[in-house]
Amino acid sequence: MEITIDIDIEASLNDVWHVWTTPEEITHWNFASDEWCCPTAKIHLVEGGKFNYRMEAKDGSMGFDFEGQFTKIELCKSIHYKMDDDRHVKVEFRNIAKGTKVVETFEAESEHSAEQQRQGWLCILANFKQRVESKGEEKSA
């Protein structure tokens, strides 16, 4: 089963792409709640390249590596990757009237309900939106 989520971001496609693909930026948004963090992010953004984002509870009680391999890259258009559990993800970046729409489609896993997965991924996407838009505010200040 595939799940698709999306969000509109008031920022240019280039700014959105930069925050999505830069390790120092990824650590600021790649977690689903305030109790979690992403202390490290490694990314080799080429087809066949790998990524590893460390996800940890801030209290140190648990953590895991979110890892995978890029299968297709279209600069400022889309990123396709396969997670280490062989599920596939497609992220699309689209120009819209007030900025950029990010659309993520991912294969669901069997441990959590589809709605739990949708909500978790949406929370991460909301953090991403906040990071991108706050960077835009910093530029204009």
UniProtKB/TrEMBL annotation:
This is SRPBCC family protein. Belongs to the AHA1 family. InterPro entries: ASHA1/2-like_C (IPR013538), START-like_dom_sf (IPR023393). Coiled coil: none annotated. Residues 11-133 form the Activator of Hsp90 ATPase homologue 1/2-like C-terminal domain. It comes from Aliiglaciecola litoralis.
